[in-house]
Protein: MFS transporter
Amino acid sequence: MQLSKADNIQSTKLDGQTWLLLVVNGLFIVANAISGTFLGVYIWKTSNNFLLLGWYTLLSHCLMALTFWTAGKWVKEGNKMMCLRLGILISAVFYTIVLVLNTNSVHYIWLLGIIQGIAAGCFWLAFNVIYFEMTNVANRDRFNGLSGIIGAAAGIIVPWCSGLIISKMTGNQGYRIIFILSLCTFIASVIVSLFLHNRKTEGTYEWTMLSQVLGEADTPWRSVFAALAAQGMRESVFGIMIALLVYIQTGSELRLGNFTMITSLVTFISFYIVGKWLKPKWRRGGMLLGTIGLSLAILALFIGYSYKVLLVFGIGTALFMPLFTIPMTSSVFDLIGSTDASVRNRVEFVVIRELGLNAGRILSILLFLLTFSINQSPLVINCFLLIIGSFPIISWLFMQRQLKSTF
Structure:
């Protein structure tokens, strides 16, 4: 278990438990990739309503933030592995409910948003604490790179297969099949997680750690929290819009699967290169390049929403995203491991990290709902996406102190 900054001077190799954690994470990603890409399309086809998707996402992020904060006590004082497994099982329950409700799901969007938020909160809180304990400064970039590769590999194959299944079936039969496949994969992830060892966490959970830390006069967490919120601003809206724009433009789940396959292939290559070669001393420059590239890619959308233009945007985003996410994630977790005191309170600091991300996600969805309730013209959508999509630059600016400390 990681105990101090000095302990972090370790081998870059990953042990068996860390590889097993990657497998659990990979199965969770695959399960979501099977259906997650098409869930928004499924809701859209039934409702034709951007705002309904916005409300679903808002509820999900709000419940995710609340779950992070409340489940922190369980993870620190109880069994974090049980929290991880509960998150996976609730995700399975989510797709079971979608299967039962079928097209009536749009009438229970509030319920789906709540369940999805609780599932994601339980899983990602436990996963991030376990990930922190299993990695160190020397191998954290490698772990993040491998995690990105697994996600990209799943994106290359899985959504394309799902799109093919949906396109070959009549009515909603294809959707029912992919929801069942997601359910089965979540169960497989739970089974594999049984082989992970639980790691004891000492101390009592500090409910007010966020206010305590941000109230300190010279804490790096103020700027890091702002950087995380800026990162969350982009994640939320783009998670809704891009797949939906591809489907609206093409009217084909198979074309959406093709889009995801191509962009995920680029992501796979980019994560492999960045994860393998990016050194801590290069994080600052690499992250700057990533933020600029992500913002420039959005300009392609001002040409129009044709499939080719969306593909150019998707490839550009896939190419530069690892340069942003790997330094950002590794630097924040390095900060958590920088002192013995912060390591002892690693659960609280993981919660602070997730609350920062969700603060940005919630704010961006509120702006999405406000903007789209007033105007949904292409120019307004493009300007909105450009503004929200450029927030990684703000993340880079707020991360300067932390990025410089890695030199």
